[in-house]
Fold this sequence. Notes:
homotetramer; globular; alpha+beta; 10% strand; 3-stranded antiparallel beta sheet
Amino acid sequence: MSESVLQLYQQTRDQSVSFCAPLEREDYSLQAEAFVSPPKWHLAHTTWFFETFLLKIFDRNYVTPNDCYEVLFNSYYNGIGEQFPRPKRGLLSRPTVAQVLDYRLHVDRAMAALLADKSHPERDAIAARTILGVEHERQHQELFFTDIKYSLAINPMAPTYIDVPNIDDTQTAPPAWQHYAGGLQEMGFSGSNFCFDNELPRHKSYVAAFELCDRLVTNAEYQQFIDDGGYQRPELWLADGWATVQTEAWRAPLYWLSDDENATEYTLHGPRPRHAATPVTHVSGYEADAYARWANARLPTEFEWELAAADAAAADAAAADAAAADAAAADAAAADGKEAFSGNSGGVDTGYYHPRPAATGTGLKQLYGDCWQWTQSAYGPYPGYKPSPGAIGEYNGKFMSNQWVLRGGSCVSKAQQVRPSYRNFFYPQDRWQFSGIRLARDPG
Amino acid sequence: MSESVLQLYQQTRDQSVSFCAPLEREDYSLQAEAFVSPPKWHLAHTTWFFETFLLKIFDRNYVTPNDCYEVLFNSYYNGIGEQFPRPKRGLLSRPTVAQVLDYRLHVDRAMAALLADKSHPERDAIAARTILGVEHERQHQELFFTDIKYSLAINPMAPTYIDVPNIDDTQTAPPAWQHYAGGLQEMGFSGSNFCFDNELPRHKSYVAAFELCDRLVTNAEYQQFIDDGGYQRPELWLADGWATVQTEAWRAPLYWLSDDENATEYTLHGPRPRHAATPVTHVSGYEADAYARWANARLPTEFEWELAAADAAAADAAAADAAAADAAAADAAAADGKEAFSGNSGGVDTGYYHPRPAATGTGLKQLYGDCWQWTQSAYGPYPGYKPSPGAIGEYNGKFMSNQWVLRGGSCVSKAQQVRPSYRNFFYPQDRWQFSGIRLARDPG
Amino acid sequence: MSESVLQLYQQTRDQSVSFCAPLEREDYSLQAEAFVSPPKWHLAHTTWFFETFLLKIFDRNYVTPNDCYEVLFNSYYNGIGEQFPRPKRGLLSRPTVAQVLDYRLHVDRAMAALLADKSHPERDAIAARTILGVEHERQHQELFFTDIKYSLAINPMAPTYIDVPNIDDTQTAPPAWQHYAGGLQEMGFSGSNFCFDNELPRHKSYVAAFELCDRLVTNAEYQQFIDDGGYQRPELWLADGWATVQTEAWRAPLYWLSDDENATEYTLHGPRPRHAATPVTHVSGYEADAYARWANARLPTEFEWELAAADAAAADAAAADAAAADAAAADAAAADGKEAFSGNSGGVDTGYYHPRPAATGTGLKQLYGDCWQWTQSAYGPYPGYKPSPGAIGEYNGKFMSNQWVLRGGSCVSKAQQVRPSYRNFFYPQDRWQFSGIRLARDPG
Amino acid sequence: MSESVLQLYQQTRDQSVSFCAPLEREDYSLQAEAFVSPPKWHLAHTTWFFETFLLKIFDRNYVTPNDCYEVLFNSYYNGIGEQFPRPKRGLLSRPTVAQVLDYRLHVDRAMAALLADKSHPERDAIAARTILGVEHERQHQELFFTDIKYSLAINPMAPTYIDVPNIDDTQTAPPAWQHYAGGLQEMGFSGSNFCFDNELPRHKSYVAAFELCDRLVTNAEYQQFIDDGGYQRPELWLADGWATVQTEAWRAPLYWLSDDENATEYTLHGPRPRHAATPVTHVSGYEADAYARWANARLPTEFEWELAAADAAAADAAAADAAAADAAAADAAAADGKEAFSGNSGGVDTGYYHPRPAATGTGLKQLYGDCWQWTQSAYGPYPGYKPSPGAIGEYNGKFMSNQWVLRGGSCVSKAQQVRPSYRNFFYPQDRWQFSGIRLARDPG
Lengths: 444, 444, 444, 444
């Protein structure tokens, strides 16, 4: 197994660096707000993760290239020790980009040796922990995209991360409602592949019958909400959301360029027209909730979403048994030890870093590859949840307050990274992720 | 029915004024922080509620004594219009106390006439809305106590709201765990009496087996947590909680007097010894959660709490059938159209405004009359929840984000005000309510 | 001498209480911003001043009624000890108004005995310190007016401190320039009466020839500045002033009511028409400076102002020698041991607490009784300045940075309180004093 | 004359770039606080200055390389238009360093052509404005050093700007007092060379006799102030200074490393021992004032300082007439059209970017080349001061409030840049300049 783990490790590590390739060296330190991190910091922190949770534990000969890194690149693991203040990550001109790349090389060599050591008594733990590190780095790859987008966007020169051809303003079908019967159901991850601790334990939950919209809310639909005074009508908003609208003077999604006759939005490919059929994205949970109320609908619970996604996956699996799986997907699945999920034609590997209009046809669309989907569920522990012991237990558990669960995946998620039980979580005021809206409602 | 509604109305209105009797006139304007309101404002706002949601709607001849009051005493009803800024309520020296009491009299007379009008075509709606206003005023009576406590406490002269004899430092029994089998259960209010809209609809929910501690955590137990470095150990805390501990420099519950050789705490009866057996109170949700983690336990979900409380109520009802109910309770129940619940020997009518040690004996103790009990449940809508139409719908629904549910009741709650399905809610950082800790755990 | 000191003491003390007579008891605690103090606090602090700097030093039998008062009513004397936080003075509901009046009585009795003790070895020091305390209390009487105006003004009910007949909108003459030759001059207080330490030592200063406007800038003139885009043109403003305009969104003087078709301003006599000829008041130093630049003039230096005022006083003295002094002024002068100054027909004893249009006639007008006049001089020590030893030395000296000197006096100053050498000082952004504009310019 | 202006221009422009040579490219964007600017921004803004105030005015064929630069690199000239927000200058990853260097080249070529155009009708104005631009760039060179020092210092890796040999901890002589008779004096710049508008007009001022310390306060002397409780004794401080000490938790000068057994301070040459004889530097005006009070002295006024410095310059000139001037200084003077001043053996051209102990011998020492010296004078206009018309008039005049004057020059000032009448100004709380303390006192 370790050969494929090593391969997975190296592919993931290489991809982090290659995602940075379009940047100028000056961009590597950008941190426009405390909640985003500079590209250089992501490159270093993901390295720190392998150093801290693998090499320093399992490789007794390992020597760090610089003792300062333990503090500088610790994100939030109090069990490891002090952390350099998050809002000042952009002020770390040293180590330089070159030094951080050296750091990566140093750790990669040590990791390769560790993974190649077939006689290591902790071989299984090493493999499992390495896979956790890979999933961690994938999460930071996604943050790399959303963070650099935020940091570049504040520059009046409107820099482009990378230029790509524009996508057709394809028509999209009108939304359709999918019906689900609910009942007493099993929730949470099952199976032998990787999952995060917050997807466990699998447990029973009662879900009443519900309906889910088959595609995401579009720019055109969201524009109607705005035109109908959506941002001026308190009765549509949660109290904390309304307060945020006032404080932040929100009048549109994050990257919609204001005073904009031509209806453009800032994207990683530069300012682009806001296509009517494209899913609205970079909305907060509060905006998603207000839109839903305006549309006489509501946000789904995370359990409703998971039920529907599991349903779709089961249907896909049945179909796949009857047909040859796509070769590329099979390869990726082989490397990863797992499979990509239904409706995931988008994602970061397409090289188009913006959501796209829904395909036509029946069934749930846009589950994973376009926008994360806000749910109404507060992020909390499943019944019987136990975080891992030690500092690694800080990964997920300590964030279980004040945040909302998002489900699905986005145009900068990796296809192999997502699944029906995956729980993403952000504060309801956060807008810099590729977050969108899927509506739910009670049966009529 | 309206006679008893009128009686209930008048009793409640009178009690608000009599709760203020021990104050100096200077105290009526006190607002030590934005989150508390001055006594005078509570007296006026509860009056505004009846004026706005009853008299202005159902009494076409009603004339307000001052047009300014509509804005000054609107708390948060955007549907009614603008509101005077909450943090500045303490700066409203005018209207004076005398003018506010006149305002109360003016509204009370109009309400008495309205309730006496047997031919009013909206008679049932008026009665129902009046009961809502009464419950609303009871909530503000409770806030009156917690707010004036907060505002008096910042005065170095340590003023006493009212002096009472000290309570015996009775021993309390060691905590015992009550076991509950859980299963697919019905949750939410049922019955014909009053409940708030957030207790509805009654719905199915699956609850795994759990155990609940039979009494609240005591001062002595919480002191052990402190002595064990509870406020210095990040691994015990949620991330947002730990950040708050740092920002606010928390080292003990809100009113524990620091540098305190004699272990006193500020109470509405002045500084008093912190009795070992008294429930710890004025802790935030974060502190409750950290304490529970330290104690190898957890906070209950609101569903676990409700299940256990409903169980206790059913047992009481069975016992009551077999015996004559206490005369005073019966009277109150008659006036109120509902009954007081098990374990509620405390509460505001005792005149002792501080939690007391648990009684001995078996069964769940301290459910209602001592401290509200933090749950781990984020405050959200029940499946199928619909707020009331119009501005009155802002009462509960718009607060369903970022807050945590507390269950039970406190030493300043009215016995007739609480029930198993009652959902109180505050931000997890809030400490000025009489909030305490009841532990839960998974069966071993 | 002590009889007249005692008389002066008692008159001053009585006047502080009688100035509060129009208030409701609820008004005594008002503190709308940190920079104002509640009436009750002024009453207590001035009492504390006599207690701290006289009774505790010179009366060995003196016992304070409450040890808490030492901290509660200490304004800023670090040499005495800790101070209750200034922004929270409005939260001290206790001591009550009645208790503060008792405190005043307690101190007044002890002071009367001390002043009557003809055998006290420190009799002269006691008299001198008592006069300082009287002048201190007069300053707080003036602050009482400006503070309560600020605190009442934020109430949407627009309470009136006291009602008086409106004043005629008299015409005022066009401004005329007075010419002064300057030269090497003596500055600072001279004579045997009271002055503050910051008016000393008298010293030489060279002043170039200058011209001073004979009256203050009027509302009508200031309106022209506004109409000419004064608040939108950065070139008229000091950099810190322009930043303040943006941050505070200033568009007019402090109490000009906005959205105001009828051109009213809030006064201590309630909202009143803004008369064209009335001096503009409640402008910051930044606004005064910007106005002057717009008018092709400048603010005077404090030395120019003093020179001109001394000139006017000398002319008055000469005239007075030739004529019988006004009887009332003579009485006041007798009580005070000093005389009132030229141009001071206004001031607090008129009972009209707002500036009035300039009289016609030649010579400098409106020197003292209408608005304090911003100078361009930063408040600093005179050459050779030495503050008094001990805590009393904190009275003036420690504020000699970042503030600007204002000269003259206002409609709420006492005639006996002002003189050519008197230096008032506030931050250039302060607007809640009765501060106005007198222009200066270099000879053409 | 224009040949020498061109030469001066080119030398200055080259020096700005060469000062950046020791940096990593990542350092060019560093902005650790809003009050410092990134090196790249200094390089661009000084270029913008020539573009805006020369090329766009005097060269009708000039084309800017990028229209965005007008806003991005405008510092504070409202007369030119909008400015990119100062606190976000560090977030401008674009234009890159390479692009900014191209911008410099672009402007330098156009400037060379403009200065070479002997037939230009505005040839004199161009030369004068170019010299202003050169002096402006020299000020930014100095800010470059103090800003990058501040920004590098926050990095736990303690990066060194450039390494140099340590300087001997030479002994310094005890301080001696120089006596000055004062009198009615002329102040302000006189002569035909360049000066800033704020040094004019030359005017009369009366200065009483005073004494000035012949050298700056040393680290060892300042340590005594600290050891004597200087930072804990409010009686030593101005009120605003004491408030700042509390808010900022100051306990030592800015770069003294705390918890420091070895008594080191952060310098542009890395952490170094705090030599006893080295002048204390990076103290605020408040600290300088408090130290002076502790030492039974005071800060000089700016007029006292200028008088003494003019005196020293006159003595030097007399000596120079009698001897051959130093060749290197003569060269610099030739290039600059002006001469270097007495006591200025330090300064940026020595390549040692830290103050050095005073030389022994008689007379005023350390006037220019070590630390700027706080005066007690608030920065204001001289009598008759007129700023230049147009946007260039914003250079100095609009800052004449709330700042204090510093006189002299520092270890990162250029020798040709300073003179007796030069007025530097910063807020009294500012500490990131090389600011030190020279004491004054009144004759005994």
